Amino acid sequence: MKTAGLDLGSVNTKLVILDDEEPLFKKAVPSRFDPVSVGRELLNRAQQEYGPLATVVTGYGRVSFPQNRVVTEITCQAKGCHYFFPEVPYILDLGGQDAKVIKKNAQGKVVSFVMNDKCAAGTGRFLDVIFKGLDLRPEDTDPAAEVEPVPINSMCTVFAESEVITLLAKGTPKRSVVAGLFKSTATRLARFIETQGQPDTLVFTGGGAHYRPLVRLLAEQLTAEVVVPPEPELTAAFGAALIAHGVRPS
């Protein structure tokens, strides 16, 4: 049975198609401030190629996509992460507009969660804005793992950007500034995670999980192992496709 999971994110829209729980198709495209239209286009093209698909829709724009069953991204993240790491109860999802900490049980069901969606600080948006200003891609930040971080005092996107500009103007090496941004973010995220417990192992999902120095620093802050699923930005879409088993194809 072919199933689809459509994740209508604020930054990217993701589609995963499974054939008896095996990946058949995966794609992520920019949402362009209209994830619903982008999602419809993605799904229509997929149905033309693969035929009727049992579909679950999740993410930021799910409530405006009434044609299919909708499920919260919290539930879909838990389902997707459970597939890859069934023994790990704690999940951090670092998305474009928010950060979520989810705790699941041994069956992959959500036990508790907390969300930060009031401020860009500690989200993928915070890092993306500053790194785009520095003309850096996620893979370009890897060298920051090898240097001593310079303290970044502000976690407000606007003030942190000004602080970065000042540090660079004073001749501070770019790698040290980037390392400082990661350390500040890791410290804030670790405190956020610890509101839900003290994990021995944490699953890190979302686009933020592509920043390897952040993964390492977060592990240090938590004194825990941090594991990243393959293609961490697709985990919620993958979970939605798993949930779609039992949904009538459309």
The SS-based structural class is alpha/beta
Strands across the major sheet, in which order?
3-2-1-4-5
Question: Which residues sit in consecutive blocks of at least 5 with pLDDT less than 50?
Answer: none
Distance between the termini: 13 Å
Tally of extended strands?
Answer: 10
Number of helices: 7
Helical residue percent band? 25-40%
SSE succession: EEEHEEHEEEHHHEHEH
Biggest β-sheet strands, sense, barrel = 5 strands, mixed
**What's the rounded overall pLDDT mean?**
90
Question: What spatial form do the alpha-carbon principal axes imply?
Answer: globular
Strand fraction equals 15-25%
What integer value in Å does the Rg equal?
18 Å
What does this structure look like?
The protein has 250 residues and is of the alpha/beta class. It contains 7 helices and 10 strands. It has helices at residues 35-50, 73-84, 124-133, 157-169, 174-193, 212-222, 235-243, and strands at residues 2-8, 12-19, 22-30, 54-58, 69-70, 90-94, 99-104, 110-116, 201-205, 225-227. The chain starts with a strand and ends in a 7-residue tail after the last helix. 46% of the residues are buried.
